[in-house]
Design goal:
Largest interface: A-B, 14 and 21 residues
Oligomer: heterodimer
Radius of gyration of chain B: 17 Å
Helix content of chain A: over 70%
Number of strands of chain B: 0
Shape of chain B: globular
Structural class of chain A: mainly alpha
Strand content of chain A: under 5%
Number of strands of chain A: 4
Shape of chain A: globular
Radius of gyration of chain A: 27 Å
Strand content of chain B: under 5%
Distance between the termini of chain B: 55 Å
Distance between the termini of chain A: 56 Å
Helix content of chain B: over 70%
Chain lengths: 688, 207
């Protein structure tokens, strides 16, 4: 726990120093020295703090529950920090990704002009975001949790607004701020109601649901709905996901990676923590599980279909994050269903799958966002229709992206497979539930999961294929700067996580299942079944890992053998293998224009799902005998934003403007308001 | 001396109602001066001779004198257009009186703290001052309204006075004096800048 506190103190001290540097830069004329110092100090201290934090999380036995209580000056709440398995597993991505993104951000910002950006402020808010996330995931008191949550929600606003010269970026950061605060409103109501009905703000006292034993089912239901609204807004649960596809493309890439890989997990963490508080053992009503499952399924399907229609690489990744959060919520929903119907297999594997997928998602999504950032740095754009053929120009970056894409597309030896495999196993046991409607429900969810996974594979085939394969479509890709290993080395850690998450899947499954059993304890009667299920799944995951490792070794050996053989014969590569244009389709003189485009990739799917998902397809086909101009355009305007949120907020704005009648500038009438209020209060206070 | 107290309180109430019905600025200022003199008499009744002198000096002479000087300097129209009809103003004052009597019955106060009728008179004076502020349009009459309201607060404070609190009251008086002084200057400048001291026309200052 001392090590954990040291990590927090390092981050806080660095935040203080960068704040001073930021103040200095805003009062004095901008200097390159200040900028460089802030960048070096901010990124190094953030990385150091995260490394210390990682050591603190990994040190000691995983199941040790540590509590640290410090003096607290406020009348309500307490400054209590704690580490238990659930906190540890969610802190892993925060610290790991925090470190990688700090180093990568430091490298990518090192040539920033001090006139354009105040890097001291940027790193201050980055450190503040890290601190906020760390405290959120270790707070053991509701008031402390809410305070940290606010810090964690506010800091990204300034991080997203980094390129504030662009009006789209400003717009995106405002959308983020509004969404974050709407979620916070629900959370404040949640904790207020919790405090009122349980009489304490200590999360440790609330744990296990003992404190809420007397609360009626209505209160519990209200608490559950508020928690889903508040934490779902952070996690990007549909229809509260609208901020994600706006904020992630607008933010600098190291920030989007951290937001997407670690911050939105806070929503899942909060939900699991509050479920632990709300449902003592097996008394959670069954509809909670089904509604989470359904919400998760809808979010996943919506996210993946929207992602398929995007042509902006970072927006595509943002929608993919929405989809993955949907999968995790499905897992939690399945776990709850298993708990309430007394099925150890579904309960254990549902929660474990959600946690395992969360860990793996942090790895590959961090890698992919950082790769997208490097693509932006090298070419100046992330619009896929302007790119292509980057694999030849940026082979290292292409390999890293391909690895991340293969992992997120659930290809077996890599990390994405493990989490979704466990989730699928959980739902596969649906037929053992009582009642045909439950069996049908889980099997349909399994079908949905399979569909989402398949679409994810198509999505990343598109993302990698259009961006990195084929020929350069425009000058952006043709004139890409080379990216040396000096700037790419921070990507090594998430890339390693993608491979390790697959090859060491039994180990991570063990951690996640242990955490799941600790955070969502099963009644004693089901414990034996759960342990058996754990051993069984660990065995099959071990087999997959073994086969995967063997396959990887075989591929590596073949590559090595090929190289050795070719070298021994002394033949130049050109003579043995003929080089042709990719996707030449048999044309003698192919041009980049006859390649697949991102729209042609998504057009077949759009044909099936267009009415459901609001995809808009504009097609101008060739007619007549001779070739003519043809065009295809697939867009996915967010109907929820234009159809639900925009009218809603416009109505609120009109209402607020209507209230301006009482602000008319007549001073004596203002005094009349005061007089009327005083008299009214006197009458109200004394009439009894 | 205490036999005079009800008479003084009655005169104060009457003064308040007449203030609400007065249409000319000069008359308003004179009535304010008279209210200061009534307060002095009341303090004498309650054996606060030192404070009575200070009150006579400030509320009876200095403030009305200042207001009179400002009025002359402004050359403003001597007749006031009330926003609230004068009859309505008096009616509101009476409603204030009734509300004060109701409040007196409701408020939990130590039994022998207030001499009879002092609390409702004080509250009515306070309300009448505020009604004056709300109902009149010129800035100068608003200053008078604040003065009258302050008189009400002052009256509420009188029975609570012990030896130390006299200094508190004197400090309050000084405060009001400075405030009126500053407002007098400000109104003079406003009158010069906007060629009117009708507060309705200050609306252009809002955001």
């Amino acid at each position: 726990m001392e090590l954990f506190l040291t990590a927090i103190l390092i981050l806080a001290a660095a935040a203080l120093v960068t704040a001073l540097l930021a103040a200095l830069a805003s009062f004095c004329p901008p200097s390159a020295a200040n900028c460089r110092t802030a960048n070096c100090l901010g990124s190094c201290c953030a990385a150091l703090g995260c490394l210390t934090g990682l050591c603190a999380v990994a040190a000691g036995p995983w199941d040790a529950t540590l509590i640290l209580e410090l003096p607290w000056g406020l009348p309500a709440g307490a400054l209590v920090l704690g580490l238990d398995p659930l906190s540890r597993i969610f802190l892993l991505p925060v610290f790991g990704l925090g470190m990688v993104c700090a180093v990568s951000g430091g490298l990518s910002l090192r040539h920033t002009s001090p006139r354009e950006h105040n890097l001291g402020a940027h790193w201050f808010f980055y450190l503040l975001l890290l601190l906020g996330m760390v405290v959120v995931m270790s707070a053991r008191d509701a008031v402390l949790f809410l305070l940290a949550w606010e810090i964690m929600s506010l800091a990204p606003f300034f991080l997203i607004d980094f390129n504030d010269g662009d009006s789209k970026v400003r717009d995106a950061s405002w959308v983020y701020l509004v969404a974050a605060h709407l979620g916070a409103v629900a959370l404040i109501a949640f904790f207020g109601l919790l405090w009122q009905s349980a009489g304490t703000t200590s999360l440790a006292a609330l744990q296990g649901g003992q404190a809420l034993r007397e609360a009626g089912p209505g209160v519990l239901a209200a608490l559950f709905i508020l928690a889903v609204l508040g934490f779902g807004a952070k996690a990007g649960l549909a229809p509260l996901h609208v901020w994600l596809p706006e904020a992630h493309p607008a933010a600098p890439s190291h920030v989007s990676a951290l937001l997407s890989g670690a911050m939105i997990n806070a929503g899942l963490y909060g939900l699991m923590r509050s479920l632990n508080v709300l449902s003592a053992l097996w008394i959670a009503p069954e509809w909670w599980g089904w509604s989470l499952l359904l919400l998760g399924l809808a979010t996943g399907l919506m996210g993946i279909l929207k992602a398929l229609a995007q042509s902006n690489l970072k927006r595509l990744l943002a929608y993919s994050s929405v989809e993955n959060m949907g999968l995790m919520f499905m897992g939690v929903g399945a776990g709850l269903i298993g708990q309430s119907s007394g099925n150890a297999w579904i309960a254990l594997l549902g929660f474990t799958g959600a946690l395992l997928h969360m860990l793996n998602h942090a790895g590959f999504k961090g890698l992919l966002f950082l790769c997208a950032g490097e693509v932006l740095h090298a070419t100046g754009t992330v619009h896929m229709e302007l790119l292509g053929g980057l694999q030849k120009r940026l082979p290292l970056l292409g390999a890293a992206f391909a690895l991340g894409a293969a992992a997120i597309a659930c290809l077996p030896p890599l990390s994405g497979f493990a989490g979704e495999f466990v989730l699928a196993l959980a739902m596969l046991d649906g037929p053992s539930l009582p009642g045909v409607e439950r069996q049908m429900g889980l099997l349909l969810a399994l079908t949905g999961l399979a569909l989402i996974s398949g679409l994810a594979a198509a999505l990343y085939a598109k993302a990698y294929g259009i961006t990195f394969l084929g020929e350069a479509r425009t000058g952006f890709a043709a004139n890409a700067h080379a990216a040396s290993w000096r700037t790419l080395w921070p990507l090594g850690l998430p890339a390693l996580a993608c491979v390790a998450g697959g090859l060491l899947a039994p180990l991570f499954f063990g951690l996640a299942s242990f955490t799941a059993l600790n955070a969502a304890p099963l009644p004693d009667g089901l414990m034996a079944g759960a342990l058996e299920a754990r051993a069984q799944v660990r065995g099959s995951l071990g087999m997959v890992s073994l086969l995967g490792a063997a396959g990887l070794c075989l591929a590596l050996a073949l590559l090595l053998a090929r190289r050795l053989l070719l070298r021994r014969r002394g033949a130049p590569v050109a003579r043995t293998a003929q080089s042709v244009q990719t996707w030449g389709c048999g044309f003698q003189a192919g041009t980049p224009r006859i390649q697949y485009t991102d729209a042609s990739f998504s057009e077949p799917l759009a044909r099936v799902f267009a009415p459901v998902m609001g995809l808009r397809v504009r097609r101008r086909q060739v007619s007549g005998l001779f070739p003519d101009r043809a065009a295809l355009n697939v867009t996915a305007p967010d109907r929820l934003r234009s159809g639900l949120f925009t009218p809603l907020f416009e109505a609120v704005e009109r209402l607020c403007n209507a209230c301006k009648i009482i602000q008319h500038g007549k001073i004596h009438l203002y005094i009349l308001y005061i007089l009327a209020t005083v008299v009214g209060l006197l009458v109200w206070g004394l009439h009894t | 001396m205490t036999t005079l107290l009800p008479t003084i309180l009655f005169l104060l109430l009457l003064n308040n109602l007449v203030l609400l019905g007065m249409s000319r600025l000069r008359g308003l200022i004179r009535l304010t001066a008279f209210q200061g003199i009534l307060l002095t008499a009341l303090l004498l009744c309650l054996d606060h001779a030192l404070l009575a002198g200070a009150v006579l000096l400030i509320k009876g002479l200095l403030l009305p004198g200042l207001l009179m000087r400002t009025r002359k300097g402004l050359h403003a129209a001597t007749s006031l257009k009330p926003r609230l009809h004068r009859g309505l103003g008096i009616l509101a004052g009476m409603a204030g009186l009734v509300f004060s009597l109701w409040l007196e019955a409701r408020l939990l106060i130590l039994p022998d703290l207030f001499p009879p009728l002092l609390l409702p008179t004080a509250l009515t004076t306070l309300f009448c001052g505020l009604i004056l502020v709300v109902g009149r349009t010129t800035a100068l009459s608003q200053v008078i309204g604040y003065l009258v309201a302050e008189n009400g607060i002052f009256l509420l404070g009188v029975p609570l006075m012990t030896a130390g609190a006299v200094w508190f009251e004197l400090a309050l008086l000084l405060d009001v004096f400075v405030a009126v002084f500053v407002m007098g200057i400000a109104i003079h400048h406003i009158g010069e800048t906007f060629e009117s001291i009708d507060v309705g026309r200050f609306r252009s200052l809002r955001d």
